[in-house]
Design a protein that fits this description.
This protein has 64 residues and is of the alpha+beta class. 36% of the residues lie in helices and 14% in strands. The protein has a single domain, classed as Factor Xa Inhibitor, CATH 4.10.410.60.
């Protein structure tokens, strides 16, 4: 049976941590930053984790 290919869109947006969690960057930091508050932009700096069924689906797309 052939190997499963990595989804090229997912490998740019997500990565799996050492514990097996799926980490991603919060959207909304690209442009139109002048109308966003500093506190909002500060919250967008930190990444976040995906849990549950969504994480399982992304791991399968990343061929983990």
């Amino acid at each position: 049976m052939p190997k499963q290919k990595t989804h090229s869109g997912c490998k740019k947006r997500f990565h799996v941590t050492g514990n097996g969690n799926v980490k991603f960057a919060r959207p909304g930091k690209g442009h139109f930053l002048t109308k966003k508050s500093m506190s909002n932009k500060r919250k967008l700096r930190k990444g976040s984790y995906i849990s549950g069924k969504n994480a399982k689906n992304i791991k399968s797309l990343l061929a983990e």
